[in-house]
UniProtKB/TrEMBL annotation:
Lineage: Bacteria, Pseudomonadati, Pseudomonadota, Alphaproteobacteria, Rhodospirillales
InterPro entries, A to Z: DUF1457
Record-given protein name: PAS domain-containing protein
Species for this entry: Aestuariispira insulae
Length: 136
């Protein structure tokens, strides 16, 4: 398992908007305590405000925190990255696709004390036109 010193987000500047670093204080549910150490601008835009320094239960609703805690526990038990993909229908023709990969960081032989993640949001389907197409 890589450690925090193996990862420098500044080494991958093109990915910074979607990167997060999470500090793990406790993974036991329901008292899962995970805090955003770093949250890129894409995460801020998805949530609607900067979440850096905040615990997940201060940012998200209880069902979302429960789902996140289950993902974190899965990662901590297996010491493997976890991939998540969700979709949200925005209109009849447009779907938002959210993808996230989260990997454990910490000392070898121990539970992770951090998670490193990357978030991507994309749109699928036709986008409505803002102006009519020229005819002829």
């Amino acid at each position: 398992m890589p450690s925090r010193s193996d990862i420098d987000p500044l080494d991958i500047p093109d990915l910074l908007p979607g990167i997060c670093l999470l500090d793990v204080e406790a993974l036991d549910r329901p008292a899962c305590k995970v805090r955003f150490r770093l949250a890129g601008t894409r995460i801020r835009d998805m949530v609607g405000h900067d979440v850096t320094g905040k615990f997940i239960d201060d940012v998200f609703d209880p069902p979302t925190v429960e789902m996140m805690a289950a993902n974190y526990q899965w990662i901590a038990e297996r010491l493997e990255p976890h991939y998540d993909r969700r979709t949200k229908q925005l209109s009849e023709v447009t779907t938002a696709v959210y993808e996230r990969i989260l990997a454990p960081l910490g000392e070898e032989g121990k539970k992770p004390d951090m998670f490193f993640g990357m978030h991507v949001v994309s749109m699928q389907g036709a986008q409505p036109l803002n102006e009519p197409l020229p005819v002829g």
